[in-house]
Amino acid sequence: MALMEYKCPNCAGPLNYEPGTRDMVCPYCDSVVSIEALEAMDALLEEEATESADWSYEGDQWQAGEEGMALYSCNSCGGEIIGEESLGSTSCPFCGNQVVISSKFSGTLRPDLVIPFKLNREEAKEALKRHYEGKRLLPGVFRDKNHLDEVKGVYVPFWLFDAEADVRADYDATKVRRWSDSHFHYTETSHYRVHRSGGLGFDRVPVDGSQAIDDTLMESLEPFHLQEAVDFQTAYLAGYFANKYDVDAESCYPRADERIQRSAKQAFRNTVKGYNTVTPNREDVALTNSRVRYALLPVYLLSTSWEGKNYLFAMSGQTGKFVGDLPLDKKAYWAWFFKIFGIASVILVAISQLLAR
């Protein structure tokens, strides 16, 4: 038969029953905990609540009269984009290589929502110029106007997830008090078990539905003002590309769960204040009332190659937020380094000569 062991909530040492009482005593920190309090803690711990949401999505098919779209495929990176049939062939917004029409556009779900482009292409080019400003070690080819002309407006597919989060959490917290007298310095550490429970609502949490675009890059463009999304109409695609989703909603469920649960846990941790230390002991999140929608969000993309590596820059077509890594011109870097090193050497020699006098 296994022995039941209770741990001290203050120092985690084993508790011993104090005969003749309803208390448990810790031999290490002398804490006294009533059996009733321990039973209440056990009841909380038994309420396991971490559950994934029961996401489901069926979506709508494309409507009659919307067949004038074509599917373009890139043989280099595998990206697929949706555009007007009149485009013929164009360059891939993800890697810059030529793409050609591969088939009539069919066999995919029709978006529920779209955020129309607010910023035009010229504004995107000006934003990229500002992104280059002050970056002296940027290769000169990146400032070439031909590259700026390759900025493309693309509707990127996103799955939007709604859910309600029921959270139960326990934290180990401490408060530390220090004082001194004429003989000693004292430190008193008080230990606390903090409990939180409640609910949060999450509306339209976005998850990128395209393999061609890095998830981190897309999340860096957030937040999109999703309250401005409108019902999808093909008219919004005129003059732009639309990236065809190749990651279905079901494949995005784990990412949606992770984003919502992480945000819920952090929100509850932020309510535990006034302590010197706070350590999560248990954080359970149950997601209910889940819903999924398919949306297209506006992004300007520029793909440029430098020394065999592809660089992809992105700007929100709604807010103007710009993200993307820039390459380093190694020749310019070493020229700058030796220039600075030479100036520093001259200064050090001058100082040493002055000190030698």
Which properties best describe this structure?
single chain, 357 residues, alpha+beta, 3 domains, twelve-stranded mixed β-sheet, three-stranded antiparallel β-sheet, 6 helices, 15 strands, 23% helix, flat
Topology:
Blueprint: E1 16-17, E2 23-25, E3 32-34, H1 35-46, E4 69-73, E5 80-84, E6 89-91, E7 98-104, E8 113-114, H2 121-132, H3 145-148, E9 152-180, E10 185-208, H4 215-220, E11 230-231, E12 241-243, H5 249-269, E13 277-306, E14 309-316, E15 322-323, H6 330-356
Parallel strand pairs: 8-13, 9-12
Antiparallel strand pairs: 1-2, 2-3, 4-5, 4-7, 5-12, 6-7, 8-11, 9-10, 9-13, 13-14, 14-15
Describe the structure.
With 357 residues, this protein is an alpha+beta fold. The chain folds into three domains: 1-46; 69-163 and 198-265 and 288-326, no CATH class; 332-357. Helix content is 23%, strand content 36%. It is built from six helices and 15 strands. The protein has helices spanning 35-46, 121-132, 145-148, 215-220, 249-269, 330-356; strands at residues 16-17, 23-25, 32-34, 69-73, 80-84, 89-91, 98-104, 113-114, 152-180, 185-208, 230-231, 241-243, 277-306, 309-316, 322-323. Strands 4, 5, 6, 7, 8, 9, 10, 11, 12, 13, 14 and 15 form a twelve-stranded mixed sheet that branches. It has a three-stranded antiparallel sheet with strand order 1-2-3. A hairpin with a 4-residue loop joins strand 9 and strand 10. It is flat, with a radius of gyration of 30 Å. The model is unreliable at 332-338 (pLDDT under 50).
